[in-house]
């Protein structure tokens, strides 16, 4: 399904915003206020889903407090640990014709979501936010984080997903049809889940486009440069092994 082919019913929101959240009590309230203001300005229906991923702070209580006065918001709890697990739960629970993965820190301004939707963007199945595409702007990113990202992207392009300059930006849009086709096949629960999904999308011939974004580095990151880089490299190799073993074959492929 391409973007222009998607349609909504009166009960179906055009857009679902899915926010995975682990110990986000500091950042989530401001982000939800900004998202609420964004939703109020839009001429189309939006649902917002916060997926609490076993937070040990007040993330869930804060999200539920917002939901009490924010009709478009609902809160899920995902017991399997990992950003990938939280995103999968939220995306498969979502109802929107387009489903947008959104980091809780809003390092990309939420208003840029419309650049992932028609009429501004048409003719694609998956749209990925890119900090490297022409027109993208990065703010305040430490040089070592940028180097780490470029090294990992090179590994991804060599061994898994070809042709894209930034597969790891936390803002991505999937059509409802593609979501329902790909996310049940997702096996990785950690940081590299989106590489796995993009690999699946590319293998199935879905059209993927990069959308340049304005992105601001936020200090409160949970990525450990060395440990997580090694883990993500191992994940890329796992994707290749699982593909060779036919793990990603869906019933319709049989």
Structure description:
By secondary structure, the chain is an alpha/beta fold. It has one domain: Spore Coat Polysaccharide Biosynthesis Protein SpsA, Chain A (Alpha-Beta Complex). It has 7 helices and 9 strands, in the order βαβαβαβββαβααββα. It has helices spanning 28-41, 59-69, 83-93, 143-159, 176-182, 193-203, 225-244; strands at residues 15-21, 46-52, 73-77, 98-101, 126-130, 137-139, 172-175, 208-212, 214-216. The strands form 2 sheets. Strands 3-2-1-4-7-5-8 form a 7-stranded mixed sheet, sandwiched between helices. The chain has a two-stranded parallel ribbon with strand order 6-9. β1, α1 and β2 form a beta-alpha-beta unit. α4 runs parallel beside α7. The longest helix is centred in the last third of the chain and has 20 residues, at 225-244. It is globular, with a radius of gyration of 17 Å. The two termini are 21 Å apart. Residues 1-6 have low confidence and may be disordered.
What's the CATH first level? Answer: Alpha Beta
- SSE run: EHEHEHEEEHEHHEEH
What is the typical, i.e. mean, pLDDT?
Answer: 90
Radius of gyration: 17 Å
**So how many helices?**
7
At the third CATH level, what is the topology name?
Spore Coat Polysaccharide Biosynthesis Protein SpsA, Chain A
CATH second-level architecture: Alpha-Beta Complex
What is the CA–CA distance across the termini?
21 Å
Helix/strand structural class: alpha/beta
Q: Can you summarize the main beta sheet?
A: 7 strands, mixed
Strand order of the largest sheet: 3-2-1-4-7-5-8
Shape estimate: globular
Q: Level of helix content?
A: 25-40%
Number of domains: 1
**Which parts are unreliable, with pLDDT below 50 for 5 consecutive residues or more?**
1-6
Beta strand %: 15-25%
* Count of DSSP strands: 9
């Amino acid at each position: 399904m391409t973007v222009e082919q998607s349609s909504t019913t009166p009960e179906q929101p055009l857009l679902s915003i899915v926010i995975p959240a682990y110990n986000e009590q500091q950042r989530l309230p401001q982000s939800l206020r900004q998202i609420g203001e964004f939703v109020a300005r839009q001429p189309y229906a939006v649902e917002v889903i916060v997926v609490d991923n076993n937070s040990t702070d007040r993330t869930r209580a804060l999200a539920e407090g917002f939901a009490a006065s924010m009709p478009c918001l609902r809160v899920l709890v995902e017991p399997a640990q990992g950003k990938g697990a939280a995103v999968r739960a939220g995306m498969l629970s979502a109802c929107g014709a387009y489903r947008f993965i959104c980091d809780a820190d809003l390092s990309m301004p939420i208003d840029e979501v419309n650049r992932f939707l028609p009429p501004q963007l048409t003719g694609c199945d998956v749209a990925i936010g890119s900090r490297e595409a022409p027109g993208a702007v990065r703010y305040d990113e430490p040089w070592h984080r940028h180097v780490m990202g470029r090294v990992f992207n090179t590994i991804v392009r060599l061994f898994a997903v070809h042709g894209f300059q930034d597969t790891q930006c936390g803002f991505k849009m999937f059509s409802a049809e593609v979501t329902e086709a790909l996310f049940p096949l997702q096996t990785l629960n950690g940081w590299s889940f989106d590489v796995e999904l993009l690999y699946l999308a590319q293998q199935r011939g879905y059209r993927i486009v990069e959308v340049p974004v304005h992105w601001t580095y936020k200090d409160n990151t949970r990525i450990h440069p060395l440990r997580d880089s090694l883990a993500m490299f191992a994940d890329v190799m796992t994707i290749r092994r699982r593909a060779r073993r036919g793990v990603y074959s869906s019933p319709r492929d049989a």
